[in-house]
Amino acid sequence: MERPTLKELAVQALSSVERGYDLLAPKFDATPFRTPDWMLAATITALREYGPFERGLDVCTGTGAGLEMLEEATAEPPTGVDFSAGMLEQARAAHPGADLVRADARALPFDAAYDLVVSFGALGHFLPDERPQLFDGIFRALRPGGVFALPMSRAPRRTQPAYWLLSGFDLAMRVRNAVWRPRFVMYYRTHPRPALLADLDAAGFAVETTPMPGVGELIIARRPAG
């Protein structure tokens, strides 16, 4: 697959989140932004002790990388939700058996329908004050006893180049959003682990973590059975 050009990436970055991903969708899987296969494999391995799972939902599914994991981890065909029509079009072509729903993840249209919910690489698209809406919707989408599995890669240290690369990206994005409309919300350092755990706890989840060797950890947020 051909990678997007610098001009295409620039146009995408100056668009809204929805329009930007509509434009990027046909070439998205050729970019570094697609969830890598090693992350999907590590998540499946870490989830084995918490299953089996019957029905799964991938929040902010994009072109459907998470659907691949759910097709292996759940008994029924998976569901993917995203608000980019372009991304869903690509996901539909790659996963014709999946149920794909166009919706805003801050207002998920599901009620006690799934026993496993996953999301990969999407938290940067939500500002800190939007996470409660996201997590409340995921809580409602789960059946009692169901699991929200959130993989987290190991955060780079200040001594590592990746730390400064991500910090620089966030700074550039803040400057862009201060001077340009519509905003494009995508940040790497707005969802630190303690804040995520606190927000999940506030949403009503029972939270634990399990290691993913060589990757980081998997946050397991369970809707209480009661």
Helices and strands in order:
Blueprint: H1 6-13, H2 17-24, H3 37-47, E1 56-59, H4 65-73, E2 79-82, H5 85-94, E3 99-102, E4 114-118, H6 131-141, E5 142-153, H7 161-179, H8 193-202, E6 206-212, E7 216-222
Parallel strand pairs: 1-2, 1-4, 2-3, 4-5
Antiparallel strand pairs: 5-7, 6-7
Helix pairs in contact: 1-2, 3-4
GO molecular function, one term: methyltransferase activity
Organism: Nocardioides luteus
Domain Methyltransferase: 57-146
Structure commentary:
The protein is of the alpha/beta class. The protein has two domains: 1-33, no CATH class; 35-155 and 192-222, Rossmann fold (3-Layer(aba) Sandwich). It has eight helices and seven strands. The N and C termini lie far apart (48 Å). The mean pLDDT is 92.
List the uncertain runs: none
Specify the structural class.
alpha/beta
Strand content: 15-25%
Spell out the helices and strands N to C. Answer: HHHEHEHEEHEHHEE
Q: What top-tier CATH class of the largest domain fits best?
A: Alpha Beta
Give the strand tally: 7
GO molecular function: methyltransferase activity
InterPro entries: Methyltransf_25, SAM-dependent_MTases_sf
Keywords: Methyltransferase, Transferase
Domain Methyltransferase: 57-146
What is the structure about, briefly put?
It contains 8 helices and 7 strands; from the N terminus they run αααβαβαββαβααββ.
What are the key terms here?
8 helices; 226 residues; seven-stranded mixed beta sheet; 19% strand; alpha/beta; Rossmann fold; 2 domains
